[in-house]
Amino acid sequence: MRMIDDLPVDGRRVLVRSDLNVPLDRSGDAPRITDDGRVRASVPTIRALLDRGARVVVCSHLGRPKGVPDPAYSLAPVAGRLAQLLGRPVAFAGDSGGAGGDIAGPYAQKIVSELGDGEVALLENLRFHPGETSKDPAVRAAFADQLAGLAEFYVGDAFGAVHRAHASVVDVPTRLPHAPGALVHTELAVLASLAGSPARPYVVVLGGSKVSDKLAVIRALLPKVDALLVGGGMCFTFLAAQGHGVGGSLLEASMIDTCKELLGEGGARIVLPTDVVVAQEVSADAVTAVVPADAIPDAGKGLDIGPASVALFADRLRGARTVFWNGPMGVFELPPFAAGTRGVAEAIAGVDGLTVVGGGDSAAAVRALGIPEDAFGHISTGGGASLEYLEGTVLPGLAALEA
Asked: Considering 210, 260, 321, 367, which one is annotated as catalytic?
């Protein structure tokens, strides 16, 4: 792939596709960003272009607003935080109520035309326009034409979106000279080391809700790993496959036979929890109990792995040279069910080797639980993209940047 240094951007307009899809707390008078990790990750590429005298036009999606303007998903709060991190103003090209048409329409064109060298603007949420996610190539192409018309070069730096065949990700690069940003290069270098010949022992930690969401990556990684540690809601389908009752815990009955096959294939390399934290309700003041993983009461829901499981997982992580972690061990957002994720995260942070947090909820947990980010080798900005890369899937956004 090219580097952004190969693009002659001085005094030229550059459209940068970033991933500014951050969580917002809307309970107050104004939306508040609760985790700015993706904004911070976008800054190095934007700053590098600005320092070279480029006129930078940043674009991103936020949430799933269904192709129409929705104030709840406006990027306005992100514009303010981006300005703070860059230490310079960010002109915000808000939608101005144009039913999606002004995302790259007249108002945005005016804002962009007024940029000077080393200045930056942020477009409104790309998904306010139906053309961004349309499955109709003609509709997507029309929106891509509008976006491309704002700039002379394109930089793809939204690793968290490269697995999506969206207009700003796959269609715009065909219309402009392009290169990946620094974030995409970093993500690919780390993931390539995992997909290639990682230093051993190689331990993968998977959590999250559903086996079906992780099945492809399990099948891809199981032949390569020395240990696969399974927690989160998905562990209960594996426990059911071993013949254990799981009470009211999350269960994918249709995946039980698949889990039996995986357990047969993986043998002792697949490590399941030995105890779990159960409660009758998912709440911050729930009454909890720790029970053996093979003795979950019918009225209980497993909502976290227990302390013995944390110790078991930590023991399997000790001495690892490469670790990939994707998915929390429980409902970490609530204090009664956060200890499992915290304990496993701290064990991973203590590994003397390459440790990769695979984005999504895992990255959010690291920050929410106050674990220093620099304790890990790499925290990915793209959970779904990371998994699909490791599955061996061709990611359309990367293919477009390579063309």
From this structure: 210
Reported as a single tens digit per residue, the pLDDT across 100-111 is 457 999 999 999
Q: H/E element holding 360?
A: helix 360-368
Q: Listing from the earlier edge strand, what are the strands of the sheet with 378-379?
A: 270-271, 227-230, 202-206, 322-326, 354-357, 378-379
**Which of 181, 233, 384, 397 is flagged as catalytic?**
384
pTM score, whole prediction? 0.91
Q: Is 135 a residue of the active site?
A: no
d(CA 396, CA 364) in angstroms, rounded, equals 25
Active-site annotation holds for 260: no
Q: Residue 17 in contact with residue 157, Cβ under 8 Å?
A: yes
Please tell me which residue in 101, 360, 382, 383 is annotated as part of the active site: 360
Residue 95's pLDDT band (cuts 50, 70, 90): low
224 is a catalytic site residue: no
Is the pLDDT at 62 greater than 70? The verdict is yes
For residues 183 and 380, give the distance between their C-alpha atoms in angstroms, rounded to a whole number.
Answer: 9
Q: Are 47 and 18 in contact (CB under 8 A)?
A: no
